[in-house]
Protein backbone atom coordinates (compact mmCIF):
# COMPACT_ATOMS: atom_id res chain seq x y z
CA UNK A 1 0.00 0.00 0.00
CA UNK A 2 1.37 3.42 -0.95
CA UNK A 3 1.81 5.93 1.86
CA UNK A 4 -1.37 7.91 2.57
CA UNK A 5 -1.35 11.68 2.23
CA UNK A 6 -4.27 12.40 4.55
CA UNK A 7 -5.83 10.05 7.11
CA UNK A 8 -9.11 10.29 9.05
CA UNK A 9 -8.56 8.74 12.48
CA UNK A 10 -11.29 7.43 14.77
CA UNK A 11 -10.10 9.41 17.80
CA UNK A 12 -11.29 9.07 21.39
CA UNK A 13 -8.81 11.49 22.93
CA UNK A 14 -7.42 8.71 25.11
CA UNK A 15 -3.81 7.65 25.34
CA UNK A 16 -3.88 4.88 22.72
CA UNK A 17 -5.50 6.91 19.94
CA UNK A 18 -3.30 9.90 20.80
CA UNK A 19 -0.25 7.69 20.33
CA UNK A 20 -1.74 6.48 17.03
CA UNK A 21 -2.24 10.09 15.93
CA UNK A 22 1.41 10.95 16.51
CA UNK A 23 2.56 7.61 15.04
CA UNK A 24 0.66 8.31 11.81
CA UNK A 25 2.33 11.69 11.55
CA UNK A 26 5.81 10.32 12.17
CA UNK A 27 5.49 7.00 10.31
CA UNK A 28 3.79 8.28 7.17
CA UNK A 29 4.43 12.03 7.31
CA UNK A 30 0.74 12.48 6.52
CA UNK A 31 -1.89 15.01 7.51
CA UNK A 32 -4.31 13.68 10.14
CA UNK A 33 -8.00 14.45 10.53
CA UNK A 34 -9.65 13.33 13.77
CA UNK A 35 -13.24 12.13 14.19
CA UNK A 36 -14.73 11.75 17.65
CA UNK A 37 -18.29 10.44 17.90
CA UNK A 38 -20.60 11.18 20.80
CA UNK A 39 -22.44 7.86 21.00
CA UNK A 40 -23.65 8.49 24.50
CA UNK A 41 -20.55 7.11 26.22
CA UNK A 42 -21.06 9.62 29.02
CA UNK A 43 -17.70 11.37 28.69
CA UNK A 44 -16.95 15.02 28.07
CA UNK A 45 -15.66 15.22 24.50
CA UNK A 46 -14.24 18.75 24.52
CA UNK A 47 -10.92 17.49 25.97
CA UNK A 48 -10.54 15.39 22.80
CA UNK A 49 -10.59 18.61 20.76
CA UNK A 50 -8.04 20.26 23.03
CA UNK A 51 -5.76 17.22 22.94
CA UNK A 52 -5.95 16.99 19.15
CA UNK A 53 -4.99 20.67 18.86
CA UNK A 54 -2.14 20.10 21.32
CA UNK A 55 -0.87 17.32 19.03
CA UNK A 56 -0.83 19.69 16.06
CA UNK A 57 -4.17 19.01 14.38
CA UNK A 58 -5.67 22.02 12.62
CA UNK A 59 -9.05 23.13 14.05
CA UNK A 60 -10.73 22.56 10.68
CA UNK A 61 -9.48 18.95 10.76
CA UNK A 62 -11.12 18.13 14.10
CA UNK A 63 -14.59 16.61 13.83
CA UNK A 64 -16.59 16.05 17.03
CA UNK A 65 -20.19 15.06 16.38
CA UNK A 66 -23.23 14.16 18.45
CA UNK A 67 -24.60 11.09 16.64
CA UNK A 68 -26.73 9.70 19.46
CA UNK A 69 -30.06 10.12 17.68
CA UNK A 70 -28.75 8.60 14.44
CA UNK A 71 -27.17 5.76 16.40
CA UNK A 72 -30.40 4.73 18.11
CA UNK A 73 -32.80 5.52 15.24
CA UNK A 74 -30.87 3.98 12.35
CA UNK A 75 -28.84 1.24 14.02
CA UNK A 76 -30.10 0.23 17.48
CA UNK A 77 -33.83 0.31 16.73
CA UNK A 78 -33.61 -1.69 13.47
CA UNK A 79 -31.57 -4.29 15.36
CA UNK A 80 -34.10 -4.47 18.19
CA UNK A 81 -36.94 -5.04 15.72
CA UNK A 82 -35.21 -8.39 15.16
CA UNK A 83 -34.82 -9.11 18.92
CA UNK A 84 -31.17 -9.72 18.06
CA UNK A 85 -28.94 -11.44 20.62
CA UNK A 86 -25.60 -13.10 19.87
CA UNK A 87 -25.00 -16.58 21.30
CA UNK A 88 -28.29 -16.36 23.14
CA UNK A 89 -27.34 -13.51 25.49
CA UNK A 90 -25.24 -10.62 24.12
CA UNK A 91 -27.23 -7.57 22.97
CA UNK A 92 -24.49 -6.45 20.52
CA UNK A 93 -23.79 -3.06 22.09
CA UNK A 94 -20.24 -2.68 20.77
CA UNK A 95 -20.95 -4.39 17.45
CA UNK A 96 -23.78 -2.06 16.41
CA UNK A 97 -21.77 1.12 17.04
CA UNK A 98 -18.95 0.29 14.62
CA UNK A 99 -20.88 0.63 11.34
CA UNK A 100 -21.90 4.18 12.23
CA UNK A 101 -18.35 5.21 13.16
CA UNK A 102 -17.05 3.68 9.92
CA UNK A 103 -19.75 5.44 7.92
CA UNK A 104 -18.71 8.84 9.26
CA UNK A 105 -14.99 8.06 8.80
CA UNK A 106 -15.60 7.35 5.11
CA UNK A 107 -17.87 10.39 4.69
CA UNK A 108 -15.37 12.72 6.37
CA UNK A 109 -12.58 11.27 4.21
CA UNK A 110 -14.61 12.24 1.14
CA UNK A 111 -15.41 15.69 2.55
CA UNK A 112 -11.77 16.46 3.41
CA UNK A 113 -10.07 14.78 0.47
CA UNK A 114 -8.43 12.13 2.64
CA UNK A 115 -7.29 8.90 0.99
CA UNK A 116 -7.25 6.72 4.12
CA UNK A 117 -8.97 6.03 7.44
CA UNK A 118 -7.44 4.61 10.61
CA UNK A 119 -8.71 2.93 13.78
CA UNK A 120 -7.29 1.84 17.12
CA UNK A 121 -8.61 -1.71 17.21
CA UNK A 122 -6.09 -4.43 18.01
CA UNK A 123 -5.23 -7.39 15.80
CA UNK A 124 -6.83 -9.84 18.25
CA UNK A 125 -10.37 -8.55 18.38
CA UNK A 126 -13.58 -8.21 16.41
CA UNK A 127 -13.55 -4.43 16.01
CA UNK A 128 -10.80 -4.39 13.39
CA UNK A 129 -13.02 -6.60 11.23
CA UNK A 130 -16.12 -4.49 11.83
CA UNK A 131 -14.42 -1.18 11.07
CA UNK A 132 -12.76 -2.41 7.92
CA UNK A 133 -15.59 -4.44 6.41
CA UNK A 134 -17.88 -1.43 6.82
CA UNK A 135 -15.32 0.96 5.33
CA UNK A 136 -14.71 -1.21 2.27
CA UNK A 137 -18.44 -1.76 1.78
CA UNK A 138 -18.96 2.01 1.66
CA UNK A 139 -15.85 2.88 -0.36
CA UNK A 140 -13.99 -0.02 -2.01
CA UNK A 141 -11.04 2.25 -2.84
CA UNK A 142 -10.41 3.54 0.69
CA UNK A 143 -7.14 2.68 2.42
CA UNK A 144 -7.45 1.41 5.98
CA UNK A 145 -4.58 1.73 8.44
CA UNK A 146 -4.56 -0.46 11.56
CA UNK A 147 -1.47 0.60 13.57
CA UNK A 148 -1.77 -2.27 16.06
CA UNK A 149 -1.06 -4.65 13.16
CA UNK A 150 1.90 -2.61 11.90
CA UNK A 151 3.92 -1.00 14.67
CA UNK A 152 6.44 -2.46 17.11
CA UNK A 153 4.83 -0.86 20.17
CA UNK A 154 3.92 -4.28 21.49
CA UNK A 155 3.81 -3.56 25.24
CA UNK A 156 2.36 -0.97 27.61
CA UNK A 157 5.86 0.22 28.55
CA UNK A 158 6.79 0.80 24.89
CA UNK A 159 3.57 2.76 24.35
CA UNK A 160 4.28 4.94 27.39
CA UNK A 161 7.88 5.51 26.30
CA UNK A 162 6.64 6.60 22.84
CA UNK A 163 4.16 8.96 24.50
CA UNK A 164 6.83 10.55 26.68
CA UNK A 165 9.27 10.99 23.78
CA UNK A 166 6.55 12.68 21.74
CA UNK A 167 5.20 14.83 24.59
CA UNK A 168 1.82 13.14 24.62
CA UNK A 169 0.10 13.80 27.98
CA UNK A 170 -0.15 10.69 30.17
CA UNK A 171 -2.70 10.53 32.97
CA UNK A 172 -1.05 9.81 36.32
CA UNK A 173 -2.72 6.42 36.68
CA UNK A 174 -1.59 5.26 33.22
CA UNK A 175 1.83 4.24 34.63
CA UNK A 176 0.09 1.46 36.51
CA UNK A 177 -1.70 -1.45 34.93
CA UNK A 178 -5.33 -0.64 34.18
CA UNK A 179 -7.56 -3.25 35.86
CA UNK A 180 -9.71 -3.64 32.72
CA UNK A 181 -10.59 -1.87 29.48
CA UNK A 182 -13.95 -0.24 28.82
CA UNK A 183 -15.97 0.54 25.70
CA UNK A 184 -19.19 2.48 26.21
CA UNK A 185 -22.05 3.97 24.23
CA UNK A 186 -25.71 4.73 24.78
CA UNK A 187 -26.67 1.06 24.42
CA UNK A 188 -24.15 -0.55 26.74
CA UNK A 189 -20.86 -0.66 28.61
CA UNK A 190 -18.37 -3.43 27.83
CA UNK A 191 -15.48 -4.32 30.15
CA UNK A 192 -12.71 -6.76 29.21
CA UNK A 193 -9.19 -7.80 30.09
CA UNK A 194 -6.86 -7.91 33.10
CA UNK A 195 -8.91 -8.72 36.23
CA UNK A 196 -11.59 -10.25 34.00
CA UNK A 197 -9.40 -12.62 32.00
CA UNK A 198 -9.97 -15.68 34.21
CA UNK A 199 -13.55 -16.81 33.48
CA UNK A 200 -13.58 -18.93 36.65
CA UNK A 201 -13.30 -15.85 38.89
CA UNK A 202 -16.33 -13.70 39.59
CA UNK A 203 -16.00 -10.13 38.31
CA UNK A 204 -15.34 -7.55 41.06
CA UNK A 205 -18.37 -5.38 41.71
CA UNK A 206 -16.41 -2.21 40.87
CA UNK A 207 -16.37 -3.32 37.21
CA UNK A 208 -20.07 -2.49 36.93
CA UNK A 209 -20.60 1.19 36.15
CA UNK A 210 -24.20 1.59 34.92
CA UNK A 211 -26.16 -0.68 37.21
CA UNK A 212 -26.52 -1.03 40.95
CA UNK A 213 -26.09 -4.53 42.32
CA UNK A 214 -29.51 -6.22 42.05
CA UNK A 215 -29.36 -7.03 45.76
CA UNK A 216 -28.99 -3.30 46.50
CA UNK A 217 -31.75 -2.23 44.09
CA UNK A 218 -34.99 -0.75 45.51
CA UNK A 219 -37.13 -3.13 47.55
CA UNK A 220 -40.25 -1.78 45.84
CA UNK A 221 -40.92 -2.71 42.19
CA UNK A 222 -41.48 0.02 39.61
CA UNK A 223 -44.04 -0.28 36.83
CA UNK A 224 -43.56 1.48 33.50
CA UNK A 225 -45.37 1.54 30.17
CA UNK A 226 -43.58 1.65 26.80
CA UNK A 227 -45.50 2.61 23.66
CA UNK A 228 -44.56 1.14 20.26
CA UNK A 229 -45.25 2.09 16.66
CA UNK A 230 -44.29 -0.39 13.93
CA UNK A 231 -41.77 -2.11 16.17
CA UNK A 232 -40.02 0.99 17.55
CA UNK A 233 -40.44 2.44 21.03
CA UNK A 234 -41.98 5.92 20.85
CA UNK A 235 -43.05 6.75 24.41
CA UNK A 236 -42.48 6.00 28.09
CA UNK A 237 -45.41 6.34 30.47
CA UNK A 238 -47.39 8.13 27.78
CA UNK A 239 -44.71 10.75 27.09
CA UNK A 240 -43.49 10.84 23.47
CA UNK A 241 -39.70 10.88 23.22
CA UNK A 242 -36.97 10.73 20.59
CA UNK A 243 -35.11 7.41 20.11
CA UNK A 244 -31.99 8.54 22.00
CA UNK A 245 -34.03 10.03 24.84
CA UNK A 246 -36.03 6.81 25.17
CA UNK A 247 -32.87 4.72 25.49
CA UNK A 248 -31.37 7.26 27.92
CA UNK A 249 -34.47 7.08 30.13
CA UNK A 250 -34.60 3.28 29.99
CA UNK A 251 -30.91 3.16 30.95
CA UNK A 252 -31.71 5.27 34.00
CA UNK A 253 -34.67 3.09 34.99
CA UNK A 254 -32.92 -0.21 34.29
CA UNK A 255 -29.70 0.84 36.00
CA UNK A 256 -31.58 1.87 39.16
CA UNK A 257 -33.09 -1.61 39.41
CA UNK A 258 -29.89 -3.54 38.60
CA UNK A 259 -31.17 -4.74 35.22
CA UNK A 260 -28.99 -5.76 32.27
CA UNK A 261 -25.84 -7.28 33.77
CA UNK A 262 -24.16 -10.04 31.76
CA UNK A 263 -21.00 -12.07 32.38
CA UNK A 264 -20.27 -13.78 29.05
CA UNK A 265 -17.58 -15.93 27.47
CA UNK A 266 -18.19 -15.41 23.75
CA UNK A 267 -16.77 -16.79 20.54
CA UNK A 268 -14.99 -14.00 18.67
CA UNK A 269 -15.15 -13.90 14.88
CA UNK A 270 -11.34 -14.16 14.71
CA UNK A 271 -11.51 -17.55 16.41
CA UNK A 272 -10.66 -17.16 20.09
CA UNK A 273 -12.98 -16.98 23.08
CA UNK A 274 -13.05 -13.93 25.32
CA UNK A 275 -14.72 -13.03 28.60
CA UNK A 276 -16.60 -9.76 28.88
CA UNK A 277 -18.80 -8.00 31.39
CA UNK A 278 -21.67 -6.21 29.69
CA UNK A 279 -24.19 -3.76 31.10
CA UNK A 280 -27.21 -3.07 28.91
CA UNK A 281 -29.91 -1.78 31.27
CA UNK A 282 -32.09 0.11 28.80
CA UNK A 283 -31.61 -2.44 26.03
CA UNK A 284 -32.64 -5.31 28.30
CA UNK A 285 -35.86 -3.51 29.25
CA UNK A 286 -36.50 -2.61 25.60
CA UNK A 287 -36.00 -6.20 24.40
CA UNK A 288 -38.47 -7.52 26.97
CA UNK A 289 -41.00 -4.86 26.01
CA UNK A 290 -40.63 -5.49 22.28
CA UNK A 291 -41.17 -9.19 22.72
CA UNK A 292 -44.18 -8.35 24.87
CA UNK A 293 -45.90 -6.30 22.18
CA UNK A 294 -45.04 -8.86 19.50
CA UNK A 295 -46.81 -11.55 21.54
CA UNK A 296 -50.20 -10.04 20.73
CA UNK A 297 -49.54 -8.40 17.35
CA UNK A 298 -47.41 -10.90 15.41
CA UNK A 299 -48.88 -13.92 13.66
CA UNK A 300 -47.44 -17.24 14.87
CA UNK A 301 -45.85 -18.03 11.50
CA UNK A 302 -44.17 -14.64 11.23
CA UNK A 303 -43.04 -14.74 14.86
CA UNK A 304 -41.50 -18.19 14.55
CA UNK A 305 -39.78 -17.34 11.28
CA UNK A 306 -38.32 -14.21 12.89
CA UNK A 307 -36.92 -16.33 15.70
CA UNK A 308 -35.32 -18.65 13.14
CA UNK A 309 -33.75 -15.74 11.25
CA UNK A 310 -32.57 -13.88 14.35
CA UNK A 311 -29.38 -15.87 15.15
CA UNK A 312 -28.14 -15.41 11.58
CA UNK A 313 -29.00 -11.70 11.68
CA UNK A 314 -27.24 -11.27 15.05
CA UNK A 315 -24.15 -13.11 13.80
CA UNK A 316 -23.94 -10.83 10.76
CA UNK A 317 -23.91 -7.76 13.01
CA UNK A 318 -21.42 -9.30 15.43
CA UNK A 319 -19.08 -10.25 12.58
CA UNK A 320 -19.19 -6.80 10.96
CA UNK A 321 -21.53 -7.37 8.02
CA UNK A 322 -24.02 -4.56 8.71
CA UNK A 323 -23.59 -3.22 5.16
CA UNK A 324 -23.89 -6.62 3.50
CA UNK A 325 -26.73 -7.53 1.12
CA UNK A 326 -27.75 -10.48 3.29
CA UNK A 327 -28.20 -8.28 6.38
CA UNK A 328 -30.26 -5.83 4.31
CA UNK A 329 -32.38 -8.70 2.96
CA UNK A 330 -33.07 -9.94 6.46
CA UNK A 331 -33.81 -6.38 7.61
CA UNK A 332 -36.42 -6.00 4.88
CA UNK A 333 -38.18 -9.17 6.06
CA UNK A 334 -37.96 -8.12 9.71
CA UNK A 335 -39.29 -4.62 8.98
CA UNK A 336 -42.20 -6.11 7.02
CA UNK A 337 -43.12 -8.16 10.08
CA UNK A 338 -43.31 -5.01 12.22
CA UNK A 339 -46.14 -3.29 10.32
CA UNK A 340 -48.68 -4.10 13.05
CA UNK A 341 -46.31 -4.15 16.03
CA UNK A 342 -47.99 -1.13 17.59
CA UNK A 343 -49.38 -0.80 21.11
CA UNK A 344 -48.34 -0.52 24.74
CA UNK A 345 -46.49 -2.84 27.12
CA UNK A 346 -46.54 -2.61 30.90
CA UNK A 347 -43.41 -3.87 32.66
CA UNK A 348 -42.38 -4.58 36.21
CA UNK A 349 -38.79 -3.61 37.11
CA UNK A 350 -37.47 -5.28 40.24
CA UNK A 351 -34.16 -6.59 41.56
CA UNK A 352 -32.36 -7.16 38.25
CA UNK A 353 -35.41 -8.28 36.27
CA UNK A 354 -37.72 -6.66 33.73
CA UNK A 355 -40.92 -8.61 33.17
CA UNK A 356 -43.92 -7.96 30.95
CA UNK A 357 -47.08 -7.87 33.06
CA UNK A 358 -49.52 -6.41 30.53
CA UNK A 359 -49.85 -5.56 26.86
CA UNK A 360 -52.61 -4.08 24.68
CA UNK A 361 -53.01 -2.92 21.08
CA UNK A 362 -55.63 -1.98 18.51
CA UNK A 363 -53.70 -4.37 16.23
CA UNK A 364 -53.96 -7.29 18.67
CA UNK A 365 -54.55 -10.81 17.36
CA UNK A 366 -55.52 -12.04 20.80
CA UNK A 367 -59.16 -13.09 20.97
CA UNK A 368 -60.56 -13.69 24.42
CA UNK A 369 -63.70 -15.13 22.83
CA UNK A 370 -61.63 -17.97 21.31
CA UNK A 371 -59.47 -18.88 24.30
CA UNK A 372 -61.89 -18.45 27.19
CA UNK A 373 -62.62 -21.40 29.49
CA UNK A 374 -66.13 -20.07 29.86
CA UNK A 375 -68.92 -20.39 27.27
CA UNK A 376 -67.37 -19.21 23.99
CA UNK A 377 -70.78 -18.55 22.39
CA UNK A 378 -69.91 -20.52 19.28
CA UNK A 379 -66.65 -18.68 18.50
CA UNK A 380 -64.82 -22.01 18.33
CA UNK A 381 -66.22 -25.48 17.72
CA UNK A 382 -64.13 -27.87 19.79
CA UNK A 383 -65.27 -30.82 17.64
CA UNK A 384 -63.14 -29.39 14.77
CA UNK A 385 -60.01 -30.33 16.68
CA UNK A 386 -60.66 -34.07 16.18
CA UNK A 387 -60.15 -33.93 12.40
CA UNK A 388 -57.16 -31.62 12.84
CA UNK A 389 -55.51 -34.14 15.15
CA UNK A 390 -56.31 -37.12 12.90
CA UNK A 391 -54.74 -35.46 9.85
CA UNK A 392 -51.59 -34.53 11.77
CA UNK A 393 -51.42 -38.00 13.33
CA UNK A 394 -51.71 -39.87 10.02
CA UNK A 395 -48.00 -40.06 9.22
CA UNK A 396 -47.17 -40.92 12.83
CA UNK A 397 -49.69 -43.78 12.74
CA UNK A 398 -48.25 -45.07 9.46
CA UNK A 399 -44.72 -44.98 10.89
CA UNK A 400 -45.80 -46.80 14.03
CA UNK A 401 -47.67 -49.46 12.00
CA UNK A 402 -44.60 -50.10 9.82
CA UNK A 403 -42.27 -50.39 12.82
CA UNK A 404 -44.68 -52.79 14.57
CA UNK A 405 -44.96 -54.93 11.41
CA UNK A 406 -41.17 -55.18 11.00
CA UNK A 407 -40.68 -56.11 14.63
CA UNK A 408 -43.51 -58.65 14.40
UniProtKB/TrEMBL annotation:
According to the UniProt entry, its GO molecular function terms are:
argininosuccinate synthase activity; ATP binding
EC id? 6.3.4.5
Taking every annotated instance into account, which residue ranges of this chain make up the domain Arginosuccinate synthase C-terminal? 180-398
Q: Which UniProt keywords apply?
A: Amino-acid biosynthesis, Arginine biosynthesis, ATP-binding, Cytoplasm, Ligase, Nucleotide-binding
Q: List localization entries.
A: Cytoplasm
Query: One GO CC annotation, please?
Result: cytoplasm
Pfam families the record matches: Arginosuc_syn_C, Arginosuc_synth
The record ties this protein, via SUPFAM superfamilies, to: Adenine nucleotide alpha hydrolases-like, Argininosuccinate synthetase, C-terminal domain
Q: Specify whether tRNA processing is a keyword of the entry.
A: no
InterPro entries in UniProt:
Arginosuc_syn_C (IPR048268), Arginosuc_syn_N (IPR048267), Arginosuc_synth (IPR001518), Arginosuc_synth_CS (IPR018223), Arginosuc_synth_type_1_subfam (IPR023434), AS_cat/multimer_dom_body (IPR024074), Rossmann-like_a/b/a_fold (IPR014729)
User: Entry's Gene3D superfamilies?
Assistant: Argininosuccinate synthetase, chain A, domain 2, HUPs, Single helix bin
Q: Where does the chain bind L-citrulline?
A: 90, 95, 126, 130, 181, 190, 266, 278
Chief place where the protein resides:
cytoplasm
Judged by the first EC level, this protein's enzyme class is ligase
Q: State the pathway, as annotated in the record.
A: Amino-acid biosynthesis; L-arginine biosynthesis; L-arginine from L-ornithine and carbamoyl phosphate: step 2/3
Give me the residues that bind L-aspartate, please: 122, 126-127
Gene Ontology BP terms = argininosuccinate metabolic process; L-arginine biosynthetic process; urea cycle
| Residues engaged in binding ATP | 10-18, 37, 120
Record-annotated Arginosuccinate synthase-like N-terminal domain positions = 6-169
Cross-referenced PANTHER family, in alphabetical order?
Answer: ARGININOSUCCINATE SYNTHASE
Q: What is stated as this protein's family in its record? A: Belongs to the argininosuccinate synthase family. Type 1 subfamily.
Tell me the subunit arrangement: Homotetramer.
In its UniProt entry, what is this protein called? Argininosuccinate synthase
Where does this protein come from, organism-wise?
Answer: Roseovarius halotolerans
> Organism classification, top ranks?
Bacteria, Pseudomonadati, Pseudomonadota, Alphaproteobacteria, Rhodobacterales
